[in-house]
């Protein structure tokens, strides 16, 4: 077994987002390698050392005050700088004392704005899966006025990749950069990467039991799951519903966020209150019930870097409607999904409505696409496969011997 240094500033199996992702990687990689995890934890959460068995965990509590504003903290990660300093200092001491690692792997943050603390210390480095940095199509920007100021700082990402020497060194010196979808290669095209591989940042643990939808009556039930922000396409989904009001179709919205009020106002304006139900944020186990009850998953997020919800819906046997650009479009194919262009709000709503209309008219097509989605999960998007891919990548970079700083 190889000695792997896993770097994740947040790692919590009881949390959501990147912290949850890092926990999946740590737990599953530890079955195939000797894992040392460098991480931090929220002061009111169970530390990773008490959640993970078979992993050597080196952890620090988050600095005071960092966790007060959850979304700000999640996006910009103000605790990363102190984590970087603490963890790099620890790593230097370990190496000076004779410790060795076959590979260092910074698995989160996913955003391409954080330097790797193992850079330049004589260990082959894998960074990723990383993603993000997608810009909104121009026609959508006018409707993003409610976006908090700190989310607009994403616009600086490309400038930093071009001019921040520490960040450039992380990517150009890494033995391998793993991108969550092909667009990452385009965003990093101005850098001289040693190697780029494409791998989704997430996966499904196992396929649930199939759901028999053949005998259902009543309306066609759509489900949308995610954070309710403008870029995730809920407004476009509501507008699509308005365009198919001649059909018996309803929509369940699972999630919350700063665009919810605007979406609720749009539902009222279009007089769709009897067709759209907002359920708010729900625990993961309750979300599963909405997938099972639904007939179609709709998620036309036009700036989605990666994400897990489309994979969860496919595992539940749902045909999916997503945007071509970004992570969801890269994780599906035409056998299981409608992949929409995102040129303008009117176009996206119209194309989404057309996809809904097609699926409403053809129950057999819904069944075929749902079955194809489950096959896609079985062959490409299980965590077991993701870990096997990563272990093979470790072996490859160790053999190649590309070490940053040399």
TrEMBL record:
InterPro entries in UniProt: Glyco_trans_1 (IPR001296), Glycosyltransferase_grp1 (IPR050194)
Domain Glycosyl transferase family: 219-375
Keywords noted in UniProt: Transferase
Signal peptide positions on this chain: none
Pfam families (alphabetical): Glycos_transf_1
Transmembrane residue ranges: none
SUPFAM superfamilies registered for this protein in UniProt: UDP-Glycosyltransferase/glycogen phosphorylase
GO terms, molecular function: glycosyltransferase activity
Keyword Protein biosynthesis belongs to the record: no
Keyword Transferase assigned: yes
UniProt superkingdom: Bacteria
Identification of the protein by name: Glycosyltransferase family 1 protein
């Amino acid at each position: 077994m190889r000695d792997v240094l896993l770097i994740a500033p947040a790692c919590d199996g009881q949390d959501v987002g990147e912290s949850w992702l890092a926990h999946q990687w740590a737990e599953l990689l530890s079955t195939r390698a000797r894992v040392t995890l460098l991480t931090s934890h929220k002061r009111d959460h169970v530390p990773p050392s008490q959640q993970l068995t078979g992993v050597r965990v080196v952890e620090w509590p988050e600095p005071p005050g960092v966790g007060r504003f959850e979304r700000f903290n999640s996006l910009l990660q103000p605790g990363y700088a102190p984590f970087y300093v603490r963890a790099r200092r620890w790593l230097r001491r370990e190496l000076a004392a004779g410790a060795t690692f076959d590979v260092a792997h910074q698995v989160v943050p996913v955003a391409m704005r954080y330097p790797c603390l193992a850079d330049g210390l004589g260990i082959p480095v894998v960074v990723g899966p990383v993603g993000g940095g997608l810009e909104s199509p121009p026609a959508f920007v006018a409707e993003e006025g409610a976006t908090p100021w700190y989310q607009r700082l994403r616009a600086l990402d490309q400038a930093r990749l071009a001019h921040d020497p520490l960040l450039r060194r992380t990517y150009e010196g890494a033995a391998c950069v793993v991108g969550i979808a092909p667009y990452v290669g385009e965003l990093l095209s101005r850098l001289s990467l040693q190697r780029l591989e494409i791998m989704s940042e997430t996966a499904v643990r196992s396929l649930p039991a199939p759901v028999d939808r053949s005998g259902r009556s009543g309306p066609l039930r759509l489900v949308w799951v995610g954070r309710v922000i403008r870029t995730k396409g809920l407004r476009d989904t509501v507008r699509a519903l308005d365009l198919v009001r001649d059909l018996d179709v309803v929509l369940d919205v699972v999630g919350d966020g700063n665009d919810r009020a605007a979406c609720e106002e749009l539902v009222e304006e279009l007089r769709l209150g009897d067709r759209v139900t907002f359920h708010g944020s729900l625990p993961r186990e309750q979300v599963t019930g909405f997938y099972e009850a639904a007939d179609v998953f709709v998620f036309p997020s036009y700036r989605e870097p990666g994400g897990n919800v489309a994979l969860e819906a496919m595992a539940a046997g749902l045909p999916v409607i997503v945007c071509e650009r970004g992570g969801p479009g890269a994780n599906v194919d035409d056998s299981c999904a409608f992949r929409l262009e995102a040129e303008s709000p009117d176009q996206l709503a119209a194309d989404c409505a057309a996809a809904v209309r097609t699926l409403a008219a053809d129950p057999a097509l819904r069944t075929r696409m749902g079955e194809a989605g489950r096959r896609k999960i079985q062959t490409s998007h299980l965590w077991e496969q993701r870990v096997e891919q990563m272990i093979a990548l470790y072996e490859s970079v160790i053999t190649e011997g590309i070490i940053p700083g040399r």
